[in-house]
Design a protein that fits this description.
Helix content is about 20%, strand content about 30%. It is globular and about 55 Å long.
Length: about 250
């Protein structure tokens, strides 16, 4: 079983349009970041976490030939606006794409993609939108997926634990009762925006504090801004067992 980090950047991506900072002009491919998304693969089962504006490019780059389901963490554009690009998977599989989301997020997806729902026109995406109960695990094939309730500033969103891996993005705080669901992790993927305080995202210091509380065997920092600094330089100052994630990184767990 593995997770492939398809994108590890913020809502703007890196490089940022018009920016000539050392990160945005870096020749190191690890400093190039598409919008955050991940692919969990277990045997023949492929599960996508989030479908942002770079979905088409991410699917092509990772050579993803089929998807079984999509999990949405929340409704912000950089996590859902690529849903239109699922059409090739509809065509190849002959079925609607199963998309799991909180009921609030599902309502927003229906509003934003109103043309998809209730219009059986050839060529449109086909989405089977199913609600997530944050208090109950999902079952997809042999996989047990545990929703983790976290706060994106004041907005309740979801992370996911699958086996001994957890994927948490756009987190600012985690309730204590949800931290209990993260015990015994081999791999934790968690966001770290930059060095300064931010109202809706963990900064680097806060992310490292949370990692120290959760105590996974390995931790990878995602949803990273160009303001974090270059991976080659800033990465040397991270604690043992903690690394910056980068696009295309494959992690076995």
């Amino acid at each position: 079983m593995k997770i492939t980090l398809l994108g590890t950047g913020t809502s703007q991506g890196v490089p940022v349009i018009g920016c000539e900072c050392p990160v945005c002009t870096s020749a190191d491919p690890r400093d190039n970041r598409l919008r955050s998304a991940a692919l969990v693969s277990a045997g023949d089962l492929n599960i996508l976490i989030d479908a942002g504006p770079d979905l088409r490019q991410q699917m092509l780059r990772a050579r993803v030939r089929h998807l079984d389901a999509i999990l949405l963490t929340h409704e912000h554009n950089d996590h859902v606006i690529g849903l239109d690009d699922i059409r090739p998977f509809n065509f190849s599989s002959g079925r609607a794409m199963t998309v799991f989301a909180l009921p609030r997020v599902g309502e927003e997806v229906r509003r934003r993609f109103e043309y998809v729902f209730g219009h059986p026109i050839p060529g449109l995406p086909r989405i089977d939108l199913l609600p997530i109960d944050p208090a109950a695990p999902l079952r997809l094939g042999a996989l047990k997926i545990v929703p983790i309730r976290v706060m994106h500033g004041r907005l309740p969103i979801l992370g996911f634990r699958i086996d001994e891996m957890a994927y948490l993005t756009d987190v600012k705080t985690i309730p204590d009762e949800e931290l209990d669901k993260l015990e015994g992790l081999k791999v934790l993927v968690i966001n770290a925006l930059h060095h300064r305080d931010h109202p809706t995202h963990l900064n680097l210091e806060e992310a490292l504090d949370l990692i120290a509380r959760i105590r996974p065997e390995r931790a990878f920092l995602t949803h990273v801004s160009h303001e974090m600094g270059r991976v080659e330089e800033t990465g040397k100052r991270l604690p043992t067992g903690v690394s910056f994630a980068f696009d295309g990184l494959e992690i076995d767990f």
